[in-house]
Design brief:
Layout lengths: L5 H20 L9 H29 L2 H25 L3 H16 L8 H4 L9 H7 L7 E4 L3 E4 H12 L9 H18 L1 H10 L3 H17 L11 H5 L11 H5 L26
Antiparallel strand pairs: 1-2
Length: 283
C-alpha cells in the first residue's frame, strides 16, 4: 500500500491550482472577440489568394518589365497622396498635409500623371494616412479586430471609416466604368506582386499565421496613430515594408493579410491605401 508524502500532496495541490488558474484565464482575446468569424474570413481570403490573386501577381511580376511595374505603382500611389494630404490636414498636421498636396501637384504635372515620382527625388517625403488614422488621432478607440472578406485585416473603427476612404479615392470617380474596373484590377495585382516576397517569408516563419498577422497588424496600426516620438517623421511605405504587417485597407485578400494595411503606392514589396482597391470598382 502506497502512502502519499506531504511533499507529493503539495505537488498535487499545486498542479491542481495551476490547472484551475489556467482554466479561469481561458476565454476570448479581448482584442479579438470575433476570432471564430475572423479565422473563417482569413481562411476564405487565403483560398482566394492562393488560387486567384497570387498566381496573377506572380505572372505580373515575371512578365512585365520593372519600369512598367514601377510606373503603375507610382501612378496609383500619386492618387493616394491626395487623400493622405486631406487626412494629414484633418489631423492638424499642416506641414505634412501641404507637403502631400505639393507632392500630388508636382507628380501629376511634371511627373506625367504620377508615372514618375519626382517629388521624392525633390525631397518631399511620402506619407500614408487614411480616415481610420484620423479618427484614431481624434481619440476614437480602435475597437475589436476584424478580418474583412477580400479586404483583409481591419478594426471596427477602420471599418466604419472605410466608406469615406473609398469616397476619398480619386480613382473611384474614373469614367468610363470599364477603364475604372480595369485599373482597379491592375492596382490589386500590382499591390499583391509587391507582397510576394513578404508572404513567402511569412509562410516560412509563422506557426499560426492568423495570430502573427493579427498581432502584427494591431501593433503596427497603433504605432501609425500614436508614434512613440510625435516629432519624428512618419515612415514611408518602403520603410514599412521592411516590418511585415495588413490593412486596410487597400489591399484585398491575402495581400492585406500579409502585413498591416497596405497602400496602393509603393506598398510593401505592405499592411495599404487610401481606399480598398477592390471596393472602388463599379459593380
Amino acid at each position: 500500500m502506497t502512502y502519499r508524502t506531504p511533499k507529493s500532496l503539495r505537488s498535487a495541490a499545486l498542479a491542481l491550482g495551476v490547472t484551475v488558474l489556467l482554466a479561469g484565464c481561458a476565454g476570448p482575446n479581448p482584442r479579438d472577440p470575433y476570432e471564430g468569424f475572423n479565422r473563417a474570413m482569413f481562411s476564405f481570403n487565403d483560398t482566394v489568394d492562393t488560387y486567384a490573386l497570387k498566381p496573377a501577381a506572380t505572372a505580373y511580376r515575371n512578365v512585365l518589365p520593372n519600369f512598367v511595374q514601377t510606373g503603375v505603382n507610382n501612378f496609383f500611389g500619386n492618387l493616394a497622396d491626395a487623400w493622405t494630404g486631406v487626412n494629414n490636414l484633418l489631423q492638424g498636421k499642416g506641414e505634412a498635409g501641404m507637403s502631400d498636396v505639393t507632392r500630388f501637384a508636382l507628380n501629376s504635372t511634371l511627373g506625367i500623371v504620377g508615372l514618375f515620382d519626382i517629388a521624392s527625388e525633390a525631397g518631399l517625403q511620402k506619407h500614408k494616412e487614411d480616415f481610420g488614422q484620423t479618427l484614431g488621432t481624434w481619440g476614437v478607440p480602435s475597437g475589436p479586430y476584424l478580418m474583412l472578406p477580400l479586404l483583409g485585416p481591419s478594426t471596427v473603427r477602420d471599418t466604419v471609416a472605410l466608406p469615406l476612404d473609398i469616397k476619398g479615392d480619386i480613382w473611384a470617380y474614373k469614367e468610363p466604368v470599364y477603364i475604372r474596373n480595369t485599373g482597379t484590377a491592375i492596382r490589386v495585382v500590382d499591390q499583391r506582386a509587391n507582397l510576394l516576397n513578404a508572404t513567402s517569408l511569412l509562410e516560412d516563419a509563422a506557426l499560426d499565421r492568423y495570430e502573427f498577422i493579427r498581432d502584427g497588424f494591431l501593433q503596427r496600426r497603433e504605432s501609425q496613430i500614436h508614434p512613440d516620438d510625435g516629432d519624428a517623421p512618419r515612415k514611408s511605405k518602403k520603410d514599412d515594408s521592411a516590418e511585415i504587417d495588413a490593412k486596410p485597407a487597400a489591399v484585398p485578400v491575402a495581400a492585406a493579410q500579409s502585413s498591416a494595411p497596405v497602400s496602393s503606392e509603393s506598398a510593401p514589396k505592405e499592411l495599404n491605401s487610401g481606399a480598398p482597391a477592390a471596393a472602388t470598382a463599379s459593380q
